[in-house]
Amino acid sequence: MSSPTALELLPALLVIVPILGATLPLALGLRYDDVGWACATAVCGIVFALALPVTNAVYGVGERVQVIHNLGGFDQPVGIALVADELSTIVVLLIAAVSLATLAYTRHGGPRGNTFYSGYLLLVGGLMGISLTGDVFNLFVFLEITGIATYGLIAKSDGAEAAVAALKYLIIGTVGASLYLVGVGFVFLATGTLNMIDLATAIPEAGYDDPLVRMAFAFMFVGFAIKVAQWPLHTWQPDAYQHAPDGVTPMIAALVSTVSAYALARVIFGVYTVEFVATTPYLQEIVVTVGSVSVVAGSLLAVIQVDVKRMLAFSSVSQFGLIVAAYGLLTETALVGALVHLVGHGIMKAGLFVCAGIVAAGYGARKVDEYAGLFAHRPAVASATAVLGIALIGIPPSVGFIGKWYIAVGSVEAELWPVAAVIFLSTMLTLGYVARLLEKMFFTHATGAPASHAVATDGGEGVLVGTLDEADPVSLGMIGLAVGAAVLAVALGFAGGTFNELFDPFVSEVFS
Amino acid sequence: MIDTLTPVATPVLAGLADVTFAPALVETFLTRYAYATVFVLLSIGLYMMIASPNLVKKVIGMNLFQTAVFLFFVATAYVEGGGSPVVPTEATPGELAVASPLPHVIVLTAIVVGISLTAVGLALIIRIYTEYGTMNEETLREVRIDE
User: Fold this and answer.
1) What pLDDT is recorded for position A127?
2) Residues in A 205-244 with any Cβ partner in B closer than 8 A
3) Which of B19 and B109 is assigned the larger pLDDT?
4) B121 vs A140: CB contact, 8 Å cut-off?
5) A contacts of B125 (beta carbons < 8 Å)
6) Is A325 near chain B, with CB under 8 Å?
7) Does pLDDT of A204 surpass 90?
8) How confident is residue A38, by pLDDT bands cut at 50, 70 and 90?
9) B80/chain A closest Cα distance in angstroms
10) Contacts of residue A164 in chain B, CB cutoff 8 Å?
11) pLDDT mean across residues, chain A
12) Rounded CA separation B20/B26 (Å)
């Protein structure tokens, strides 16, 4: 029970600052109007600043250490630990960066109001908690905090459609979290501990063939499959992404499912072990199949969508399928690939949803057909969308390429050829839905678009004119965010070796 | 193995198992009925969420589902002959039998989470009702198609 050093305090502050900060917009809102954005920016700025020293300690040039904070000074396994290791720190950095960057969109693009920013900060706190916690029950609590904040943010949209989508997400998401909790109960029965590090040794002692241990894994896996939106448990996701406010979707798409997928990795590789998945009959096959089926089903459903945000949502089902399948491959390369793709997909999808939001705010265009001739009128946004889309397909140099490449190499190493085939197929199908968008933006003239039936058509020039005379609904910050995401997606395409080196300590420990 | 599941109220009901033809299955059921109840409640809750067209009943089903999980945790904490986990100062180690406190704490936390979720869910239903004038899922679908 020694008092923690300044560095060891940081993981706790990363969780506490946004959650306490969530009260600020409400409290200050009693006295000042429109104080929410300023509060959120200040708090997210502080969180980002706090995340930097942690990142430096874990990944820095000097001596690398894991930063562990024992809450309340109780040592593990009795107390709850917050752990920033090679796996969680990259997710913490992603959360800090995306939550700060998305504010550049919401400043001008909405939604507005102090309550919105309270929910926003609560979401950041919940996500930080999921990433950092070292306790399986504590993970459940943060999953639900994240969930509650997400449901509220989705319903912040103007239409009542959003409330229906949020309620659907609430009911399905709660079932997912409850199933996870049942799994926690079973593993607690089998081992008598809830601490993740402790469980990693207690589960082999209970025996990998213990029905309780197996049952626990089954419940946890299905719970996470709902939270990560694996086919056929994905049904909440397209509605939620489509009807959420444009300023919220990038945040949710980049972080909420990503952090759930991270938690699944933590449970599979940190709590259970590679050996458990490999030795339990049919388990590896089940994990790989769930992922692969999601890849194919998600891509196919994305290709037939008319609404752009809905299309991108189904694309997420497919990309997360790839990540889950990579978990199941059980090779070092595939795991690195899954983690790279986790981060890369977060950046790319956040950027794409920002682009979709800008196009909707600027032109009222929400359908693929309405994107016709976008490049001629808004080259910056159209180019950003194109670059991000191409990165999502996995054409080098891009972060999407590195992730898929590692996963593909991993599937060859594991000699699971069907997965290699699925990855190739998913690339083709991704090309299918991205190319549709590219063709509309670059090669179809706005007047020639057969279905440009939206708002201002009286000029005869289609939807893209007549929006520039009023106060521009698209701010420089919004465009900068989209372009920044595109540049980052390409720049990280050169960082394959760096990623490999960063994750190496965790990955080699898992497979040792 | 299955023995790690705590038997519930064995002294009361074990006798019943002897009276009957007492196959292992019956005894298992009579001593571990709490676990059976958990899965019955889980199923009822899940069925309500899927089958009931009424949005409020869906939320009630969700509550039932969560309550089943709480019951599961409380049942695992049961210790035969154990009291409440308040340890007296002059306790003699090894003789004190108390129920495991940790699952109770977990359930307490989970109840708070459940209440928050119910509140958010009901708030969403109120908004849906003011907007569409219905809480019936099927009517809602028709209204939304018409729009």
Assistant:
1) 93
2) 210-212
3) B109
4) no
5) 167
6) no
7) no
8) confident
9) 16
10) 128, 140, 144
11) 85
12) 9
Structural domain for B79, as ranges: 2-85+93-146
Query: Is residue A416 left, alpha or beta, with left meaning phi > 0 and alpha meaning psi from -120 to 50?
Result: beta
pLDDT digits (tens, 9 = 90+) for B37-93: 888 999 999 999 999 899 999 999 999 999 999 999 988 888 777 777 777 777 666
A155 touches chain B (CB under 8 A): yes
How many structural domains compose chain B?
1
**Could you tell me if A48 and A95 are in contact, meaning their C-beta atoms sit under 8 angstroms apart?**
no
Average pLDDT score over residue span A172-182: 93
Give pLDDT, residue B20: 52
- Which residues in chain A have their CB less than 8 angstroms from residue B113's CB? 140-141, 144
Residue A67 CA to residue A89 CA, distance in Å, equals 9
Backbone dihedral region of A331: left (phi > 0), alpha (psi from -120 to 50 degrees) or beta? beta
Q: Which of A312, A35, A26 is nearest to A152 (CA)?
A: A26
Residue B103 and residue A185: Cβ atoms within 8 Å? yes
pLDDT band at A458 (very low <50, low <70, confident <90, very high): very low
Instruction: Tell me: ipTM over 0.95.
Output: no
CB contact under 8 A, B69 and A182: yes
**Cα distance between residue A428 and residue A440, in whole Å:** 18
**Alpha carbon of B19: minimum distance to chain A alpha carbons (Å):** 31
Q: Identify the sign of the CA torsion A78, A82, A85, A90.
A: positive
**Domain range summary for chain A, segments of one domain joined by +:** 1-134, 344-507
Determine, for residues A148 and B117 on separate chains, whether the beta-carbon distance falls below 8 Å.
yes
Q: Which of B2, B73, B117 sits opposite A185 (nearest CB)?
A: B73
- Name the 3-class secondary structure at B129: helix
Tokens of A367: 């359908």
Q: What is the CATH number of the domain that holds B65?
A: 1.10.287.3510
Band of residue A469 on the pLDDT scale cut at 50, 70, 90: very low
**pLDDT at residue A278 above 70?**
yes
